[in-house]
Amino acid sequence: MSTLEIRNLHVSVETDGEGPREILRGVNLTVRKGETHAIMGPNGSGKSTLSYAIAGHPKYTVTEGSITLDGADVLAMGVDTRARAGIFLAMQYPVEVPGVSVSNFLRTSATAVRGEAPKLRLWVKEVKETMGFLEMDQAFAERGVNEGFSGGEKKRHEILQMMLLKPKIAILDETDSGLDVDALRVVSAGINAVRETGETGTLLITHYTRILRYVQPEFVHVMAGGKIVDEGGSELAATLEESGYDKYVKVGAGA
Ligand SMILES: Nc1ncnc2c1ncn2[C@@H]1O[C@H](COP(=O)(O)OP(=O)(O)OP(=O)(O)O)[C@@H](O)[C@H]1O
Fold it and tell me: Which domain holds residue 141?
């Protein structure tokens, strides 16, 4: 069973001129295959830092603790090895890659992750069908990656990648932000389609409960001040909608 285990994770970021700053201060989290976890929390609590640390962003240094995937030391792996091991990050702000078409990007990514090129005819069919599922115009396949895409189109493209790459662990960093109602419905359907295979563990980072009406997590974790300060089931998300994060901000800052 695929399991991502994070133990006592401390992460620092290199600041401009002020040396390293500790952002994560002892995060513990276990995500198993088939499970959906939501990480919620106020601005600046460390949610994106957690996602970057798992994916291997070079600006973030793990100073203490461990991350393992099926027992293998993720921290000893480079970014590309992590992706091949089955870790996928849908970024909060997807970057443009001008001059690289979506179709080339997707096929190259799939070849790298699978270790061999997908059979062309089957691959083309799969990409077409998945784009259809996500209600994306097929013309996107020939456009530069994220080049001139709207915010919502970028997020659909992230989910398209996830559906095609079929990761063991999918980290979705604010995939819901900036989506209109229709895009939210379609993106959520994509997340649920992957989830229903039972093969992927999902870490859904969000501020809002809006997406959790479509994608119901079994586990909700609240992050504040670089730590997980509360945990529960989907009922916790409903409580947060009512109460906000105020009480957690104090807990996160205090300890
Ligand atoms: N390069 C950096 N230099 C200085 N501070 C940084 C840097 N990168 C991140 N931080 C700080 O780390 C904290 C956590 O940021 P992070 O992006 O992980 O929070 P977040 O919970 O994802 O926030 P949001 O919900 O607003 O996206 C913030 O206070 C942020 O300013």
Answer: 3-254
